[in-house]
Amino acid sequence: xxxxxxxxxxxxxxxxxxxxxxxxxxxxxxxxxxxxxxxxxxxxxxxxxxxxxxxxxxxxxxxxxxxxxxxxxxxxxxxxxxxxxxxxxxxxxxxxxxxxxxxxxxxxxxxxxxxxxxxxxxxxxxxxxxxxxxxxxxxxxxxxxxxxxxxxxxxxxxxxxxxxxxxxxx
Length: 170
Known about the structure:
Blueprint: E1 4-14, E2 19-24, H1 29-32, E3 38-42, E4 49-59, E5 62-67, H2 73-76, E6 83-87, H3 101-104, E7 108-111, E8 116-124, E9 131-136, E10 141-145, E11 151-155, E12 160-163
């Protein structure tokens, strides 16, 4: 069975020349939206539509993208609300210490002493470093900054992350 990975969501059109506004969910927008790259648009209960990126630019908090052959706002209007994904074959090898979001989400976070904190269910990218949202044992959300002082060990195969529990973190 094919695996697909979310790159972003088309939230609106932009202008009249077929440009779409995407809220990205990728750490690699320059790669994913590079001219000539293949993406797939997933709309409810339909087969994915394969598209080739024609152009990309950023505007405010959005990635603005045009697709080859979709040159008019009327061509892309139907894509509003659709997810943009890449096939697992398009994932590239990362350098040591780098991870895809899907590798981190679902990992169990434990302290250096072995106390289980919870599982990562979301990753926020507010600025200088990512922040992992952990669903705690009592249902409380705990925010873990992805920095060397806190994150000590990452084992994506075992879905386990060891952290140094700094004062005030929980």
